[in-house]
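writing this on my phone so excuse typos. first protein, seq and then structure
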Amino acid sequence: MSEDSVQELELISTIGFNGSVPHGLLVHPDGEHLIYPLGCTVVIENIKTHEQNFLSGHTNDVSCLAVSKSGKYVASGQITHMGFKADVIVWDFEAKEPYATFTLHKVKVEALAFSPSDKYLVTLGGRDDSSVVVWDLKMREALCGAPSALQSAGTVYTVQFMNTLTTNLSPEEIKL
């Protein structure tokens, strides 16, 4: 049998949930879908019908997940091996396909968070990387980055957008 005649297997359904990814079981803002990682795949499951869709694109296990406030985007980060960079994939939820892929962190992406406006994604590298990067989703590029912790202070494990502005602007005028 030649390699040309071998058909690629298609994932039809999954059973189970590992639970090893911190904050790895998310409810989509529409209230109708669960989002969770299983190996190198992200599973989107309809809560009522149990229909599953699979987001495939990572080359190793998914290490973190985030969903944007509007539900337009899902982001997933992965873990790789020493000496390799770990991908972050931003998925278009409706199309169930990649919107953008960011490759900057070494070995592991520890955490992800979308800005409330869906304009930015912040990514946190793992212990071997120790950097935080802010990405512009429209331009699909990094805006800025910095070390996330001092060696003497320990390791950072989570990241979150937070509005701590003291301002006279209304919430509608603040677009992070």
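second protein below, same order as before
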Amino acid sequence: VFDVRGRCFSVLPELIRGHPSTLLAQLMDDLGTDSSKPIFVDANPERFNYILDFYRYGELLPPASLPIAGLLRDAAFFLLPQDLLINGVRYDTQQSRTADLDVVSSAIIAKWPGFMDFFNSTLESIEEHFARAIELSDQEESGSRFADEHGFKLDITLSTFRKWKDPSNVCNWQRANVLRRRLQQRGFPATLISSGGHDCIILQVR
């Protein structure tokens, strides 16, 4: 159940979890979410049911009177696919997504004391890892050293056994996504990977 500014919307959890990269799926599986209570979502309740259409039918099915621009902004905010069907017509959500996600990221960082120190520390760890890869680049690999794809991959564990490793910094999916996005903006391809039913969340940098 999602509580959208006081209005509740019910949907099968399996439908939401079938699209794990979307924001609603991440909110459902956030380590701090109480599954017995509605999940609060700060969005427009008049358009939210059409966002749920994506999970039910694979496309948005709004009435012709509803402005498409607002739906595209919502779709970008909820991390729906870039190539999106609305009433059978394909739309690109990317143009609105970049601006909206920048606003969301900035708002999350504003509530994250010590973000820059944590981010700079993470950058240092990444740079040290790749500097080590360069240092070893003239040596023959053997055994377990083959496993890290010749140094061009770094796994940063954010949570284990459903507990965040550094809760004063990364304590939910929202902050994890902001960290991933800021690393991407610095030129590091970064991906969030979950395993064991979200028991372990890893930030993988290549």
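The beta strands are 2-4, 7-9, 39-41, 83-86, 89-92, 154-160, 163-164, 190-195, 200-205. thats all i got for now
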